[in-house]
Amino acid sequence: MVDFMNNKAGTDMKNDGIASANISALHCIDLSSPDIHTSVTLLKQACLDSGFFYVVNHGISQEFMDEVFAQSKKLFDLPLEEKMKILRNEKHRGYTPSLDEHLDPDNQINGDYKEGYYIGVEIPEDDPESQRPFYGSNVWPTAGTLPGWKETMEKYHQEALEVTKAVSRLIALALDLDVDFFDRPEFLGRPIATLRLLHYEGKLSDPSNGIFGAGAHSDYGLITLLATDDVSGLQICKDKDAEPQIWEYVPPLRGAFVVNLGDMLERWSNGIFRSTLHRVLGNGQERFSIAYFVEPSHDCLVECLPTCQSKVNPPRYPPIKCETYLLQRYKDTHADRNSYK
Q1: Any idea what DSSP says for residue 211?
Q2: Which of 79, 140, 264, 278 is 20 to 30 A from 315, alpha carbon to alpha carbon?
Q3: In this structure, are residues 218 and 278 in contact, taking their beta carbons and an 8 Å threshold?
Q4: Using an 8 Å Cβ cutoff, are 119 and 157 in contact?
């Protein structure tokens, strides 16, 4: 495990004025390590403990990551009227304004104080698959407005998927499955993969008054890769049923992805692996992050894995089709597009 109280991340947390807050020490998985046994052991412990871990040496260069963040900032620096021209469509592609998403309605007085931009799997309109709810053409800013922007994001989308597949192979081994279990066409062979750029505008969060950068939630799908800048804000709660809930900061780690498991993997593993509550608290500083959400194919039936059930531990969740599950989750957490007209 990495002790962040003795490195720069711990110092940054103190400079942010939250020295008394709990700081989470997460396992760090080196994707370039030839010691697969150790990697699987560390990952399995992380999935049992919190469902959150770091991955390093993942194959995406720091120079390219810096370019993706720079291009993301250029988008969010556009005037609001320009961004509203590329408002998200019915397939959740495009721009989402501040307060559009409402992840924790029981505890938030408004929506999340963040703006975002969705980029999904690009499928040409003349392809029958483009009619699926989470496939189709993306919404792009014009090349004249942001030259090279589309090409940068498409390249990142492809490279992030390869990192996800590498992580999924370790997860498969940790669940006593074949290493290529998630590579099958119905899983990550034809995935629903969504890149989401995020910008927190510097509003100070106040949990006691229901103001959050992003409200408490667990992710919907299989795996999420999160790249962050050096501004803190992400918190996790390992025990959602605790009273009171205990929240721990996840420090930024340059060059690493924060990886977390989604609700689908918790269902698949029969609750053995964790999909953990997390949220973002704004500390008054502008903050950027880039999330990459990966789910299996539309028609994948998410049901208890054979290695995760027994006579004494029968399946806890009914089978559900991936498409059905995702459509409901998006509907529950996003504002009606017609409200912007």
Answers
A1: B
A2: 278
A3: yes
A4: yes
Tokens 């667990």 belong to: 218
pTM: 0.90
Q: What is the DSSP letter of 287?
A: E
Neighbour count for residue 170 (Cβ, 10 Å): 21
Model pLDDT for residues 266-318, shown as the tens digit of each residue: 999 999 998 999 999 999 999 999 999 999 999 999 999 999 999 999 999 99
Q: In sequence order, what E strands does the chain have?
A: 22-23, 28-30, 52-56, 94-96, 115-119, 121-122, 135-136, 192-200, 214-217, 223-228, 234-237, 248-249, 257-261, 277-280, 287-295, 301-302, 320-321
Q: How many Å apart are CA 191 and CA 183, to the nearest integer? A: 10
- The bridge status of strand 135-136 relative to strand 115-119 is unpaired
SS3 293: strand
Whether residue 93 contacts residue 157, with contact meaning beta carbons closer than 8 Å, is answered with: no
- Which segments of 63-143 are extended strands (E)? 94-96, 115-119, 121-122, 135-136
Is residue 337 within 8 Å of residue 87, measured between CB atoms? yes
Q: Is the pLDDT of residue 86 over 70?
A: yes
Tell me which residue has tokens 């469902």.
51
- Phi and psi, residue 144, nearest 5°: -70, -30
- Nearest 5°: the CA angle 308, 310, 315 is 65
- The per-residue b/e assignment along 132-141, b for 16 or more CB within 10 angstroms, e otherwise, is bebbbebbbb
